[in-house]
Amino acid sequence: MKRTLLQFLACGAITTASFLQLPGEDLSDWSPPSFLKEINAPTGLRPPSEAKPIIIAVVDDAMRVTHEELASFIWKNPKEIPDNRMDDDGNGFVDDVSGWDLADDNSDVSPPVGREGEFFHGTHLAGIIVQIAKRAYGPEAAKWVRIMPVKSLEDDFEKPYLKKGYNGIQYALDIGADIILASWGEARSSREHLDILDTAEDRGVLVVSTSGNSYSDNPQFPAAFPSVISVAAIDPTGEKLTQSSYGGFVDIVAPGKSISSASSLSDTDRATRDGTSMAAAIIAGSAAVLKLQHPDASTVEIVAMLKNTAQPIEQFQKGEIFFGGKLGAGLVNLESAVNYDLQSKPHQKIQELQTHQGYLARYRANDEPVTWRIRPTGTVDGFWFEPGIIHGPSGKSRLQLFRKDDSPEMPFHDLLLSDWKERIFVPGTEAAASLVEDPDFPGFRLLVEFATQPITQNTLFCKGTGSISIEGLFEDGSGSGNYSPQSDCKWLITAPEGKVIHIEFLEFDTEANTDWLYFFDGGGTQEQIMAVYSGPNIPPTLTSWRNQTLLWFVSDDQNQGKGWKASITFVNPE
Hints:
With about 575 residues, the chain is α/β, with parallel strands linked by helices. It is built from 8 helices and 28 strands. The protein has 3 domains: about 5-335, Rossmann fold; about 340-455, Jelly Rolls; about 460-570, Jelly Rolls (Sandwich). Strand 24 (about 515-520) and strand 25 form a beta hairpin. About 50% of the residues are buried.
């Protein structure tokens, strides 16, 4: 039976603290939590007159709905009469006044008595959303942001597996949630689960999920589903949180270190936690603010506001060049996103973009072609372009896509907008796009999504099996930098017939007992192992048993060293 593993298992240590006052109460001594400063959360906002309250479903373990920070924000089902033991709204759930427990099939979404400390996750995430709402709307925050508890972990669980997570998403969709926070994941999803996510996309409901806390770039679901916002975490310096997963499926990052929020232990306690779940809650709360301030914006447009104003963070990563394109558009900047106007004309005809993800936006007619130059930090394999929104007749308007050195007269792709339906790839480390508009059709709206194709890290410094047949210096391929995580590199060294191979190491630095360099007697890994080296010390000189040896280097996701350098000579056997 497939189970969905809650990523809160890696959330980190818990500390309790007294209740932190928030806007809407006495502001004289209030200081905003650090994560609100890190995302540049705005204050003093007022939604436009046409705005409606935003319902955020937190599909999680449980929620302490009586906590003093959460109580006024808990969603109430307007069609359900409390405690009359009837299904007043006819949705199949009796007395689902404030959400539902999908795992135990009842209306009690609170942590079970005696296990409050184990059912901490949903309460903590809801408290993060509340803090963003209070920061933005002060005393009126609870009027505009409603939190729907959707409990999906059974009271008597033995292992914290969220078996009813996708059922919880379906419930939230059916009951009318605007945003769904699903801070958990699994390595793959069934067709049934993906159909639920397809339904969310079709209905314009934004699903936010965590990239995971597995330290790797292996995608997990629902985060890796294209329409779901996948969130990785960083620390206050801008560096990726150690345990945070990363990869091409990540859309954006948010703070995930020492996030203080409501605790499930009592109605007044708070806790401080680390993890990507906290980062995902920050994005869910940020999306709610954007939907309130831009009530007519579609889900795609909300995502465009988030991505186009995010701050790229690759430059803050220390010695890890493989993160290029694996941390999404960057760190959310909520104030900039709130003030971002998709419909404004560009200030310059040529727009320079340095992010790995974002949108090319055209909402008003331009007198001359608009060109976007995309030059992200770090090395990538290329760029994907996909039509996000093309509304209205565009006539013969075209989008031309260029590689770094392409002539303006010779685009790599020349796309008629009215015919463009599928993703398009442009190889290279830089790309450009130029919109050539049909003057007879000035009223169309265009939103084109772009994302870089990251370099596969286990082939960053090698591809296939390298061949060496001459004497000289030999090294791991990373130069003065660290070798990549998840390395899987092979080199076949072949000496002339009658000779053997003498290998003397000049430098050697790998993670001890974790990253290994194997030497096989012959040309394949099925041959006998002659030696295995690992650690920070220079290994002993090695002489092969015959004229051919295969070197195989493998590493994990953490603690990459400088690698190695060796001298290879071909000698007569002793």
